[in-house]
Hints:
- The chain is an alpha/beta fold.
- Helices cover 41% and strands 15% of the residues.
- Helix 6 (162-171) links the parallel strand 6 and strand 7.
- Pathway: Amino-sugar metabolism; N-acetylneuraminate degradation; D-fructose 6-phosphate from N-acetylneuraminate: step 3/5.
Amino acid sequence: MIDSLRGGLIVSCQAYPGEPLRDPRAMSLIAMSAAAGGAAGIRAQGIEDITLIRQLVALPLIGLLKVGDGDVFITPTLAHAIAVAEAGADIVAIDGTRRDRPDGLTLAETIRAIHETTGALVMADAGSLEDGLSAQDAGADIVGTTLSGYTGARPRTIGPDLELISEMAAALSVPVFAEGRIRTPAQASEALDRGAYAVVVGTAITHPTSITSWYVDALRRELVPTEPA
């Protein structure tokens, strides 16, 4: 399954709470559209979304649950991870940082239990090279740059953290998925050039609210009057 993702685009189909597209049917339609466009895989959040997308899309599916507003909120416990796998995810994405987990389990204990209980693969969402190395040692099948700029370990770059992608690709033996703030095809291509095994893009493809705001902001800047010379 991981081999089928090499060099490919994984489309993250998620919507924020309160938005019109925050609906499993809407996310499944976006996932189907991504598949029709040539996506190699799908990343989805929420049990209902994962369940429906699994029924409609045959691509490898990375699933997660966002729970609470604490530091560790991406599939924060083993129980959440098992629920994601049982909903149909082939790969369970979890917080892969070195921070304490809400259920008291270590990252290694969590990953081992996911493997043994569900048979699903594990993608560790990391925020630094140190996180990535620790996640690899803990048994993660994939490490993502997802949390770069969000844990305090690294500054938040305007675009993708290309430096971290390069560092992880050079230091890790497991596949490194580039994820986070990838807005253009050129940035996605650069991530592969830096050594990423695959590229995950969400907002720039599946979040019309954000995409619209980028255009609106650009047009507003064009309308700002300049002072006379």
